[in-house]
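ok trying this again, last paste got cut off
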Amino acid sequence: MQDTLQQAFNQTIGLPLNKTTRTEKVVYFHFGHTHYTTPQGLVLDVGEMTLAVNCPWELQLTDGGLIKQSEMYIRKREAGLPTPVWDWKKPGSSMLDQRLMELVNDNPNLVVERAEQQDNGGLLLYFSDGSTLSVLPEPEKPAAEYWQFFSNTGDGLRVGAGEQGLL
């Protein structure tokens, strides 16, 4: 499993963070560019490698700012009066979605330079602009899967971590 993790790290190094998406609490960081065709024929623009995170994480920015997973529970900024009904589960509706979209759109230098496995199933990704993504599983909140790296290029590469260690 350790070899598979290193292979995932190696395939991610040098790729830019080009997109983030979200399904309720799971945030997907897409690195590089490729296309995936669903069984229904829909062509999706996804990353060559994707990191799915289902635990606390934070992105330390070079200007000292911080983007945290918990921002998905905060309503995004809107011009005028806010929408009367707000649902944090709806992708694009939260402060997190808004800040990540702005970051990716405004910063083409988010290229992965280095990746490290951490204790308790965590990991660190270092970007070329000096930003750092820290994935921080909480041992007191065990989960079958904290995070997972997977390839969208058809090579079947998939590795993750959960309460039982590397998966």
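PB: full thing came through this time. Residues 11 and 49 are 7 Å apart (CA to CA).
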